[in-house]
Amino acid sequence: MKTKLFLIAALTTLASNMVWADGAALYAEKTCVACHGKEGKKPMLPTFPKLAGQNAAYIAQQMLDIRSGARSNSSSAAMKGVMVNPEGDLLVSDADIKELAAYLSKLKP
Q1: CA 18 to chain centre
Q2: CATH number for the domain harbouring residue 68
Q3: Three-state DSSP state, 55
Q4: CA 36 to CA 82: how far, in whole Å?
Q5: Each residue of 18-38: pLDDT tens digit?
Q6: 8 Å CB contact between 36 and 49
Q7: CA-to-CA distance for 55 and 48, rounded, in angstroms?
């Protein structure tokens, strides 16, 4: 029984660290850092959100809404350009959004 619990704990930690690494890499690769700051705490403009520590489901929904056009304002226009190219091809996939949201939710605000 102790071996099973240890194995479960080890796998959970490994999976968490993989999400952390993947999320951090995506955050840099997708240029999120340019507008939201290195750790999601210091946005470039005061109208851009601080992302560190936000609820993962909330972050994901906002990204999906911006990508689809359901959320459209002057602040989201630049982000839409990062998420979808002019031809309509997705630059940030659903899987990317999930990874980014999980990563950002685990950062200290």
Answers
A1: 14
A2: 1.10.760.10
A3: coil
A4: 13
A5: 444 699 999 999 999 999 999
A6: yes
A7: 16
